[in-house]
């Protein structure tokens, strides 16, 4: 399975930091956000990685290179103008191939998320307790978290392992998922397209599965959040 890291966002709420540094290169606990993902993907055996970028994208390429020093094989999909999530995936499909792939937002911090879960989308849930792989029932498989303060009403409900647009409670989309390439059929390379409406269409068709992740997870969206994550290191440095 290949993996994609979304790194094309401008990071408006992180300005002025992102005026001179792409958001995925901002450091959390001594390491760029995107590097946490690369290392965790490689640890899970997902070594073929596609990264899309736009604003200051050359800096991401300079930092990560071809990925060999991490044990990865990294290729890049440049977007002269950011295409949003669905558009960015469609633009990179020629690099992702014909099999299901994992995708993760480059601006989340989830240091203990085990990406090998993507290889067994429904672990230990069949009649004889054997792993059930991501299969033809689903066009996508999303990971959800308890709702953070900035998204108190959540995004999707979960009925057993099937997502629903409506229901109670709703859970926060973690920015991590597994997708089939045919989910993006009909979207042209270079087309601007948001992720939410496309995903909700397939959820309405009951073609999206998912599960809840309860480990540490932060969407690093503001300077204050970044400073809070780095506070333990700052305290140690000042000790």
UniProtKB/TrEMBL annotation:
Gene3D superfamilies: Spore Coat Polysaccharide Biosynthesis Protein SpsA, Chain A (3.90.550.10). Keywords: Nucleotidyltransferase, Transferase. Residues 2-126 form the Nucleotidyl transferase domain. GO terms for molecular function: nucleotidyltransferase activity. This is Nucleotidyltransferase family protein. It comes from Massilia litorea.
């Amino acid at each position: 399975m290949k993996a994609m890291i979304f790194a094309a966002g401008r990071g408006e709420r992180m300005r002025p930091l992102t005026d001179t540094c792409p958001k995925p290169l901002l450091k959390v606990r001594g390491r760029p956000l995107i590097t946490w993902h690369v290392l965790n993907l490689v640890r899970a055996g997902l070594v073929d990685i596609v990264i899309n970028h736009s604003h200051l994208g050359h800096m991401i390429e300079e930092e990560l290179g071809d990925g060999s020093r991490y044990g990865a094989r990294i290729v890049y999909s440049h977007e002269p103008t950011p295409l949003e999530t669905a558009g960015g995936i469609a633009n990179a499909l020629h690099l992702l191939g014909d099999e299901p792939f994992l995708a993760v937002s480059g601006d989340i911090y989830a240091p203990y998320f085990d990406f090998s879960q993507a290889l067994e989308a429904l672990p230990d849930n069949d009649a004889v307790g054997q792993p059930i792989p991501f299969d033809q029932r689903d066009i996508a498989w999303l990971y959800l978290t308890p709702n953070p303060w900035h998204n108190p009403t959540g995004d999707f409900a979960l009925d057993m392992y099937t997502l629903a647009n409506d229901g109670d409670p709703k859970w926060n989309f973690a920015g991590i998922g597994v997708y089939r390439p045919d989910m993006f059929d009909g979207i042209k390379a270079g087309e601007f397209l948001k992720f939410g409406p496309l995903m909700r269409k397939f959820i309405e068709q009951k073609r999206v599965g998912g599960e809840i992740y309860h480990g540490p997870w932060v969407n690093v969206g503001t300077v204050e959040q970044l400073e809070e994550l780095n506070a333990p290191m700052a305290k140690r440095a000042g000790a």
